[in-house]
Amino acid sequence: MSSLAGRPARRRRWSTVAVWAGAVGSPFLLELVMLSRLPGPARFVLPFLAMLLPWLLLRRHPFVGLAALLAGLFMLTTIDPDPPTAGPLLPGLPAHPARIDDSGYSMGNLLALREVHIAVVVLAIGWVAAHWPRRVSIPFAAVALVVQVFFLFAFPVINLDFGTIVVVLLTVVAWVIGHSVRQRRQFTATQREQRTAQAVQAERLRIARELHDMVAHNVGVIAIQAGVGARVIDSQPAEARNSLTAIEATSRDTLAGLRRMLGSLRQSDPEAGTAPLGPAPGLAELDTLVDRAEQAGVRVALTRSGDTELPPDVDLAAYRIVQEAVTNVIRHAGTDRCRIELSATDTEVRIVVTDDGSGGPVGAGYGIAGMRERVALLHGEFDAGPCADGGFRVAATIPVPA
């Protein structure tokens, strides 16, 4: 097993050695190809491939790759011992007369290969600017520019002013384009990360709302029933048994809701399977909610109008708002009765929950804020606060999409 595990590592080491050998040795390979007097198209294809070998180092070692590129350019610049004074650096310039040197290439072909190599260096500048930060790409471009301008002055083949301007412009344009590509890529990645973070935050808020609305209501009912049972267990054992029965039913409902929520969260996990989740609660369960509130000691007067089938998100939001408002009555209002008014039409659902309790100010807890968020997400209107004649009022209007 150890020998099998070591094979990939050895293979990677040998591939790294091969890349370094090919890239660093590319100038010598280029010179060897140039002096070998190869026949036909191979005389131009093989030098071009040798020019590209240093690119293998640009991803990890850009300056080593640049050194190999410039060494190849130096070899092409100095291979002819007596270069002429003009050449086809750009279309439209006067061409050199056909002349054969020791390599077997005409001077025009040699100058064309030099121009191709300069283009390869310029492309390398753009590639490095697109993949490396400015602290690397700027020195890379500066070194490439200085060395190329030096070659122009040391081995002049065209007008120096014209050649210098061309090389400087090509270098600057290549760096600017590459850097722009890098900035655009970084901007896109940043936007993607922000969208992901916003989606995660929105999902956390949704989970927090669901947990609060479901658990807070049911646990509040359980706490009240437990208190009632503890007080009457000796004097009214039948009433204590009723409280325990209500606690059991509410606990089972809470567990079912938690399982449903955990199941919905596991839907995003491909390995979690496809367990049935059950329907989300809605206004169809309003009677059950009223029964539990009455078991907790709060009499509920429910008034309904309209019998419109609602979209799931509106149905869930309406139910949670009623549930949270009733929970607040049970836990905070200090009264034994409340009123729920529910009206549904084809265009909107209106919910009003009022009580005649102490009617304190709007608290800083999550309940009111959670209801307000639910309504805002569905582009509705929400209001909560004490009534003028005492008590507390929660009102929400949720539009129904057409």
From TrEMBL:
Alphabetically ordered keywords of this record: ATP-binding, Kinase, Membrane, Nucleotide-binding, Phosphoprotein, Transferase, Transmembrane, Transmembrane helix, Two-component regulatory system
Give the molecular function GO annotations: ATP binding; phosphorelay sensor kinase activity; protein dimerization activity
Residue limits of the Histidine kinase/HSP90-like ATPase domain? Answer: 313-402
Gene Ontology CC annotations of this record: membrane
Source organism of the structure: Actinocatenispora comari
SUPFAM superfamilies, from UniProt? Answer: ATPase domain of HSP90 chaperone/DNA topoisomerase II/histidine kinase
PANTHER family assigned to the protein according to its UniProt record, in alphabetical order = NITRATE/NITRITE SENSOR PROTEIN NARX-RELATED, NITRATE_NITRITE SENSOR PROTEIN NARQ
Query: Could you tell me what reaction this enzyme catalyses?
Result: ATP + protein L-histidine = ADP + protein N-phospho-L-histidine
* Enzyme Commission numbers on file: 2.7.13.3
Spell out the protein name for this chain: histidine kinase
TM region positions: 17-35, 41-58, 63-79, 111-129, 136-156, 162-181
